[in-house]
Amino acid sequence: MRVLLVEPNYKNKYPPMGLMKISTYHKMLGDNVQFVKGFDHSVDKKVWDRIYITTLFTFDFDVDVKTINHYKLLVNSIDDLYVGGIMASLMPEKVIEATGIDRSNILTGLFTDTSVVGDNNNINVDELPLDYDILEQIDYKYPAGDNYFAYTTRGCPNNCPFCAVPILEPYFHETNNIIDQIRTIDEKYGPKRHLLLLDNNVLNTENLESLVDDLCKIGFGRGAKYVDPGAYNIVMMRYRNGDRADFLDKKMAAYLEGLKKRIKSVKMLETFLQIVIGAEDAEDYAQYMLDHDKELSLIVEKYRNKAKKARFLDFNQGIDGRKVNDENMKQLSRLAIRPLRIAFDDIRLKDIYCKAVRTAHRHGIKEISNYILFNYKDKPEDLYERLRINIELNKELGIQIFSFPMKYSPISETDRTYIGINWCKKSVLAISAILQVTKGVVAAGSNFFYKAFGSNLDEYFELLAMPRELIMFRSYFENNGITTKWKALYGKLNGEQKERLMALASLNVSELRKTPWPNDLKDILEFYLIKHSDKTEYSNEKYIQLSLMEDSNIIIED
Ligand code: SF4
Q1: Which pTM value belongs to this model?
Q2: Which of 267, 194, 279 is nearest to 235 (CA)?
Q3: Ligand 1: distance of its center to the CA of 325 in Å?
Q4: 3 state DSSP class of 102
Q5: I need a surface site. Which of 5, 143, 334, 347 has the fewest CB within 10 A?
Q6: H-helix or E-strand containing 401?
Q7: What's the CA gap between 111 and 18, in Å, rounded?
Q8: How many angstroms separate the CA atoms of 231 and 256, rounded?
Q9: Are 101 and 84 in contact (CB under 8 A)?
């Protein structure tokens, strides 16, 4: 069977784990599998026996629909096309309406039963290992890098109304053994450096101690180090396993090319060059390499980089601060965890959150970061307060908590325009402008924080009201005096005028131009039409440097 796997051309951090498992599944059945991202016209001429399309964020709905409508023409029958993933699971009816595919061709939730695609076996696709090889078929590089991606648990028993997990994975359960998952990857693809665990609520497990034991056994205990085996050893292992692929040969050739420069011994270099030159004419490159492994491996072992590097484990979806206690922090502190992400979604959880951070810290976990939901039922000042609390905790505990504010959008919406009940569009845009400079991270240092968000609530609200260009090109407009002029006008406004200003400043520039301006706001509204003329001359250096300096601790982020 010829199987095509498609990920629409949206930007995403993690590789498509669902498709990687489906690839493993079809390869187990002896099928030919190809993976593409977006529209790849090299696959358009074929007719595929089955196509699977994944989906992710609901706000990528239009891209997904375009992709489905394109690929539905490349299967024998529309019934041979399946759409799955998060967006499709959350809004199957909308997908049906926009694409005409049948409800039975939308795979909602986890792919645990292959009868839904008409296959007759007892394979639980969700528990299969990931096929990393499909990623070699596309040019897109996932920001999360070439690491282990796994789950140790699925689901979450909490029903937070803003979260999609209760719909996608309604039952909390443990998955297959993490030792087996990692061992399978090691044996097939070679070891990877970091481990990203995508559990939604790992602290809900009753077997945390044995899970931590297992994670220590597979090399992620506290202080864990990693020595990269190098492409030579990995590709050789794969050749020995019988794997043959162009990308393996290319990886091997590129590695040997790089190694050549490091060989100091004249005799070894001579032998090395002889082998490498001979490889150019080899009919079977892989077999040729295997035949010369004995001589080559001596050279590779002498010159390959054997530096020990720290490796980390990251429960990337965050842990539930309400469940943090001495017992579970004692367990997690046995791991090379970095960072420990604790959700801080609601200011009302302030005491629980602070207690959770202090408990983690007491057990020696010092690399902490958090997700901060905003634009939900919170107020703008709640966001400031949560960020400020982290700055104070940093001072108190001598640590560096990094924050990742996450803008809420309802899971039923297909775009990101939602504005929370206590927010206005201008405030949300101001936060996004501030975060744009630092790629979404609020660094740990107080210098950065008070500069970026204001040193008190008054300054924070002033920043939220400030024209976007003045926020984005902060140093430039501060230095040329424009910001001072704007501040002087803003300072003269009363509360009611500020409210009207925020409503008008929420309009985009063309709407603002068309709208009649009230006399008392005319002067200040002029500032909202200002455009920084030369975007390449980015005049925010000081601000960027400050954030990057303090951001150096972040290891795996967008
Ligand atoms: S605890 Fe986290 S994963 Fe669970 S429902 Fe709430 S937000 Fe979602």
Answers
A1: 0.90
A2: 279
A3: 18
A4: coil
A5: 143
A6: strand 400-407
A7: 8
A8: 9
A9: no
Per-residue pLDDT reduced to its tens digit, 441-475: 776 677 888 888 999 999 999 999 999 999 999 98
Token look-up 């660094």 returns: 443
Q: CA end-to-end span of the chain, whole Å?
A: 36
pLDDT digits (tens, 9 = 90+) for 481-535: 999 999 999 999 999 999 999 999 999 999 999 999 999 999 999 999 998 876 5
204 lines ligand 1 (CB under 6 A): no
Distance CA 383, CA 374 (A): 6
- Which atom of ligand 1 approaches the CA of 345 most closely? 7
Cis peptide before 339 (omega within 30 of 0): yes
Q: How many A from CA of 321 to the centre of ligand 1?
A: 11
Look at the alpha carbons of 64, 67, 73, 76 in this order and tell me if their dihedral is positive or negative: negative
**In the structure encoding, which two tokens stand for residue 524, read together?**
């200040």
Contact 413, 58 (CB under 8 A): yes
In CATH, what class is 1-142? alpha beta
Q: Which residue type occupies 153?
A: T
- The residues near 415 (Cβ < 8 Å, ≥ 6 apart) are 59, 61, 409
What would you report as the CA-atom Rg of the chain, rounded to the nearest whole angstrom?
27
